[in-house]
């Protein structure tokens, strides 16, 4: 029995290693997804600024065109002023020209305001674009590293799985089945060491009689509390010759 328990204990070590690797391996796609999400957020910000810049430039072009047309109209009105016959009409047209000029000055002010805003957005945007470019490189680097890590993990894990298969071959199938079932039911730990009469998995003290039975190392003994296969940690020397 001792030799089988030794093999099971060694198999448990491999199983724990595989479990740990699987956990770590599963984290990699999550980390990649969260990196992608962060990057996308910044990308969206840059896109929003670009859209705003385009909107401002369009507005500026429209206002400049309007202003040009209005200035033209004023010029034409001024050219016709001398053709006016009555004083009353003359005064009315002059007044009209004056208010049109005033309106145009307001338009110029508005255009200047837009130009200032454009400059501001442009400055901000080019800073953000530069940042994003640096981030893109860093992001790509991290993703590559994670993918590389995932690949080497897969390889290493395949090696461990092969080792598990080799170890399993040397264990009687009924014992192995029991171990597998316990592994599933007991959070990945099926075999528990006993040290100083205490089950190291659930920390229960074994009854003295059971402890003595265990030390004989002839029968399969389960922990009365956690049902795991018990394994006498100090039993190696005593096991010689059995
Ligand atoms: Zn136990």
Can you characterise this structure?
Helix content is 78%, strand content 5%. The protein is mainly alpha-helical and 242 residues long. The protein folds into two domains: 25-167, Helix Hairpins (Orthogonal Bundle), CATH 1.10.287; 173-239, no CATH class. Strands 2-1-3 form a three-stranded mixed sheet. Helix 1 runs antiparallel to helix 2. The radius of gyration is 41 Å and the shape is rod-shaped. It binds zinc ion. Zinc ion (ZN) is lined by residues 192, 199, 201-202, 204, 223, 225-226, 228.
Number of helices: 5
The string of secondary-structure elements, in order, is: HHHEEHEH
pLDDT averaged residue by residue: 93
**What kind of sheet is the major sheet?**
3 strands, mixed
By DSSP, the count of extended strands is: 3
As a percent range, the share of helical residues equals over 70%
Shape: rod-shaped
Over all CA atoms, what is the radius of gyration? 41 Å
* Ligand inventory: zinc ion
CATH fold category name of the largest domain:
Helix Hairpins
Spans of at least 5 consecutive residues with low confidence: none
């Amino acid at each position: 029995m001792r030799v089988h328990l030794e093999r099971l204990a060694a198999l448990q070590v491999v199983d724990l290693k595989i479990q740990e690797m699987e956990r770590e391996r599963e984290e990699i796609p999550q980390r990649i997804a969260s990196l992608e999400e962060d990057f996308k957020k910044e990308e969206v910000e840059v896109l929003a600024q670009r859209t705003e810049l385009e909107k401002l430039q369009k507005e500026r072009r429209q206002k400049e065109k309007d202003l040009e047309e209005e200035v033209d109209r004023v010029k034409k009105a001024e050219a016709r002023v001398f053709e006016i016959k009555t004083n009353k009409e003359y005064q009315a047209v002059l007044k009209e020209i004056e208010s049109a000029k005033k309106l145009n000055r307001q338009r110029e002010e508005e255009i200047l305001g837009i130009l200032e805003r454009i400059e501001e957005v442009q400055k901000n945007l080019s800073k953000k674009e530069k940042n994003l470019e640096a981030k893109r490189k860093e992001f790509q680097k991290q993703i590559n590293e994670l993918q590389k890590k995932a690949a080497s993990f897969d390889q290493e894990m395949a090696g461990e799985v092969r080792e598990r298969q080799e170890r399993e071959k040397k264990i009687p199938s009924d014992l192995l089945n029991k171990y597998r079932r316990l592994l599933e039911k007991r959070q990945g730990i099926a075999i528990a060491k006993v040290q100083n009469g205490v089950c190291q998995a659930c920390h229960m003290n074994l009854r003295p009689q059971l402890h003595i039975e265990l030390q004989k190392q002839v029968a399969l003994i389960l922990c009365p509390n956690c049902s795991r296969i018990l394994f006498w940690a100090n039993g190696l020397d005593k096991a010689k010759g059995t």
